[in-house]
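Recall the central idea of this unit: under ordinary conditions, the amino acid sequence of a chain determines the structure it adopts. In this exercise we apply that idea directly, starting from the sequence alone.
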Amino acid sequence: MAAGLVSCLRTWITSSHGLAPVRNWSSLLPCSTQWPVPDSRVEDGAGTNSTACWSRPHGADIFGALRKQWTDRLIHSNLHTKISAALLSGSRSPPLTEDELPPFLSDLRTHLAITDERLWEACLSVSPGQPFRLALWRRLSGMLSDPDAEFLDLLPHGVPLGVDPAAPVPPSSVMLPAEPDPPHPMPLEHCASAWQSALSDPDTVDTLLAEEISEGWVREVPGGLSALQNRYRLSAVGKLGLVKSDDRPPRLVVDSSVSRVIENTILPNRSAYPGLKDLRRCVPVAPAQEQLTALVLDVSKAHRRILIRPEDQGLLCFHHRDRLYQYLTL
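Accordingly, the structure predicted from this sequence is:
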């Protein structure tokens, strides 16, 4: 037992008879962080082709040359300090201006070997209602042999919600299949009111709704419920809610469970989430003097930036001040 304890503690004790003050304890730690090398993939929630452990390459470095070119350009132009300051400030504005982007886009064009001017213009174009350069995104996904690249072809026209059996959600090859659960279709409902959270603060709802209308995410349904039902083969009206919390701005939510949209939605895949075991397999094996930095990025209102296919835009509707509205995006 004594020998076992010694083997466990050996890395934590000095090999000489010298003494170190407690306040200098950190100087006894290794200089560099040691990362584990798991013998199998580590779940990170992004599908079976993804892994949370990047301590070693998992394939060819497709964008290695471009990454080096961009890194050199950032450092030589001192833009890396500007980006760092923007991230630290929490600003919602892009860290680079439109005038600063062309050199980076030119590098990307060279890396993609696009010589045709019209093709490059198409890659830089942004479809109405979709704030992404989808053609460029699609080309990059193709270079990476992304198995889900075809999903990008749905975005310009809108994605299905999975309620209409004639237009199912296409399955992903890298997500786990959903558990077999035979659907039990229920009639879709058309609620006539909203939740009390929205009814009790209509002025805040007015402000938030005006913002979403200006963004092109929501529009009023002229003619109300009868016009909605005449226009769409499938329609439903949920209940609008207003969510308030201390650590984030108020936001609008539409309860689609009361309208039975969620109950009628069929998803071909299920998500997998990392657990404590997965985290333990990809964090440093021991403390070190080297300092680590965590960078957390979030796409603001990411779901609001995905168009719904036109035939399904009658399913996410709600009432406010006796007017009917519909969501055009998720």
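The beta strands are 176-177, 218-220, 239-243, 251-255, 269-270, 317-320, 323-327.
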